[in-house]
Amino acid sequence: MTSISLNSVGKQFGSLVAVKSVDALIDEGEFISIVGPSGCGKTTTLRVIAGLEEASSGEVLFGDNEVTDDPPEKRNVGMVFQNLALYPHMSVRDNMEFGLRVDGVPDNECGSRVTKVAKMLDIEELLDRSPAELSGGQQQRVAIGRTMVLDPDVFLLDEPLASLDAKLRVEIREELQELHRQVGVTTVYVTHDQEQAMTMSDRIIVMNDGEIQQFATPDEVYNHPNNEFVAHFIGTPSMNFIDCELARKGDTLYADLGFDSVKIDENQAARSLANGDSVRLGVRPEHVDLCHDNEEGFTTNVKFVEPTGKDKIVHLNVGDEDLKAIVEGEENVVGDETRRMAFRSDCIHLFETESGECVY
Ligand code: ATP
């Protein structure tokens, strides 16, 4: 088990900059996910950690050891990729023992290590089958097991759950979490699926365009996004954004939305805010409330309602803005009606229009 430091790590393919000077310190035993849109550099970052790609700049350290120029076999990393690449002509047992044999581990130790990991992953019954005789989820477990027997210092996973159906994905996700609890090996997991990342990780790296946008706990990236990109990328349905201008009335600063204004507590601002500043107000759908009785709010048109079972996603229109609200399933709200809504004042964010940086 080891910590991983990325110091100003960059990676170019010809003129294409895939990763731009990334800095990150992943603690020993942490479970980290890297999320971000397609092509943002997640896999490249993982491959640089693994030694499968050479960094174009910067350095990679495992603990205090610089490994930037070390080939993969000198790094003691375990890797599971979406394309599982089990050897089809070998039994599960032989697949799992293969790496140990290459490393020259004696027969009896190979056997006992495979048995131990197979027990952990609940695949003992499958050891004499061939990969073709396994379900997708079982193949997944074998691929993970094959890596675990090598007792890696670092475990790297690249979308290993992507090919599975939704139910199996949740099962394997829970197993991976349990495995991480048991073994505690430093793990970096690349995924498109932010929900998966939120539930599994100690911390999340949100990437865009080859750069880290935020590296923080799931709670932090959700509730305190660094910028508009993170705010928009994390959370389903996405945060609502409304362009607005700050306006001072007397001693109080308001965000003027056109259809309503929201009071801004200047003590909570990350920098000084001024009358006339252009910002984008962000509010998550679950922080848009339907008003009842005499509660104050602005008037909206309910366009349509999507029930999800537990909740309802309410699609609203107010002025030029389309917004979404999430309300409880039992709330009585239907399409084509006029309702009053309010934003929870302690749950709004302001982003600088130009830079997207969070200022409140
Ligand atoms: P996805 O989610 O689609 O897998 P990603 O975030 O993992 O994407 P990368 O695979 O790291 O993205 O790719 C980052 C950029 O680098 C992309 O523009 C990609 O086309 C480019 N790239 C990746 N590998 C190579 C390569 N071997 N040669 C040239 N360009 C590459």
UniProtKB/TrEMBL annotation:
SMART domains: AAA. It catalyses: L-arabinose(out) + ATP + H2O = L-arabinose(in) + ADP + phosphate + H(+); D-xylose(out) + ATP + H2O = D-xylose(in) + ADP + phosphate + H(+). One of its GO terms (cellular component) is ATP-binding cassette (ABC) transporter complex, substrate-binding subunit-containing. Part of the ABC transporter complex XacGHIJK involved in the uptake of xylose and arabinose. Responsible for energy coupling to the transport system. It comes from Haladaptatus pallidirubidus. Keywords: ATP-binding, Nucleotide-binding, Transport. InterPro entries: AAA+_ATPase, ABC_transporter-like_ATP-bd, ABC_transporter-like_CS, ABC_transpr_MalK/UgpC-like, Mo/tungstate-bd_C_term_dom, NA-bd_OB-fold, OB_MalK-like, P-loop_NTPase. The complex is composed of two ATP-binding proteins (XacJ and XacK), two transmembrane proteins (XacH and XacI) and a solute-binding protein (XacG). It is found in: Cell membrane. Its main location: membrane. It is a peripheral membrane protein. This is ABC-type D-xylose/L-arabinose transporter. It is an enzyme of class 7 (translocase). Belongs to the ABC transporter superfamily. Carbohydrate uptake transporter-1 (CUT1) (TC 3.A.1.1) family. Residues 4-234 form the ABC transporter domain. One of its GO terms (molecular function) is transmembrane transporter activity. Its EC number is 7.5.2.13. The keyword Nucleotide-binding applies.
